[in-house]
Amino acid sequence: KSFMNGSIRQLIDYLTHHGFDHAISPKILTRPAVRDFNNIVLFLFRQIDPNFMTSGALQDEVINMFKLLRYPFQISKTNLVAVGSPTAWPALLATIMWLIELLRYDEEAVNAEADQDKLHEAEDPASSEKAFFTYLTNAYNCFMSGDDDTYNDLEAQFVDSFESTNEIISKQIEELEEK
Question: What does the pLDDT look like over 116-135, one tens digit per residue?
Fold first, then answer.
């Protein structure tokens, strides 16, 4: 009972902070209707893939999506038909909580990567491999689209960043030689 109450609170917290657009409350989630469960699962799947669309029976889509995500347990079609039953809901709630943990982990990983990128850019934006590959990707896109002006601007910016870095390093070398 305490697991379910804690999970329901976490689920409501996640859904409200991520813009869930349907009514949600602890009372609804104590014994949810199939429609409520479907809305929640579709919302969570769209957090993973914003273009997610169902092409068949939603029950089959749910089972397939969790298989693709490598959910470690089997999801029963019977549970998906009788979502709010006392035997089905705890297992389905645990499944949803697993998915939320996965989404939160992904958010944290993206935030950590962004923080790491900012740190590297602050240190020396031209020396990072990521800066080079970003330039290469953008330049190739410009080349493929025939946008020579943007390509020339990108190249000039990239060369300038290396030249400014070289100047800074040269000044540091001169200071060290003087000392």
Answer: 766 655 555 445 677 777 88
Q: What is the 3-state secondary structure (H, E, C) of 112-152?
A: HHHHHHHHHHHHCCCCCHHHHHHHHHHHHHHHHHCCHHHHH
Query: Taking the complete model, does pTM exceed 0.85, yes or no?
Result: no
User: Whose CA is closest to 44, among 81, 2, 10?
Assistant: 10
Cβ-in-10-Å burial (0-12, 13-18, 19+) of 150 comes to: middle
Mean pLDDT of all residues belonging to the chain: 86
Q: What is the DSSP letter of 12?
A: H
**Who contacts 15 (Cβ-Cβ below 8 Å, separation ≥6)?**
24, 40, 43
Across the range 21-43, mean pLDDT stands at: 91
The whole-number pLDDT of residue 72 equals 92
Look up residue 89 and give its two tokens: 């809901």
CA 95 to centroid of chain Cα atoms: 18
**Cβ–Cβ < 8 Å for 63, 77:** yes
